Amino acid sequence: MKTIRYLVSGLLLFTGFLHLVSVFKDPDNSHLMALLVFGVIYLTLSVLIFIQKKYAIWMGLIVPVIPMISIPVMIGIYNLDAMTMLFLVIDLIIVVCCGLLLFGRKK
Q1: Which of 8, 33, 61, 96 has the fewest CB atoms inside 10 Å of its own CB, making it the most exposed?
Q2: 106 phi, psi to nearest 5 deg
């Protein structure tokens, strides 16, 4: 379970930095505020999961579902660029791993 926790923490750190890089790379982006907010949330969750806060794992299960649902609805599934698809794939991996951490069998 420690490996999964480190994986989740690393993925959240990676995607948090990618969100912030996207903000500074394209400051005219119409979704600038969402990128900034989710970048900060993901970076914070990364640290909290790394230091083993149980509520952070619950948030890691819930928070990534928000863009997984809202992005395809707002932008449309056929209009997604490569970076957005990367965000969604990473979010899916994070949700699955957090589910394993919460509901997986303890050894």
Answers
A1: 33
A2: -85, 140
Q: Give the tens place of pLDDT for each residue, 20-54.
A: 998 888 888 778 898 999 999 999 999 999 999 98
Output helix, strand, coil percentages for the chain, rounded to the nearest 5.
Answer: 80, 0, 20
Q: How far, in Å, CA of 45 to CA of 61, rounded? A: 11
SS (H, E, C) 21-64: HHHHHCCCCCCHHHHHHHHHHHHHHHHHHHCCCHHHHHHHHHCC
Region of 76 (left: φ > 0; alpha: ψ -120 to 50; beta: rest) is left
Write down the pTM of the prediction: 0.89
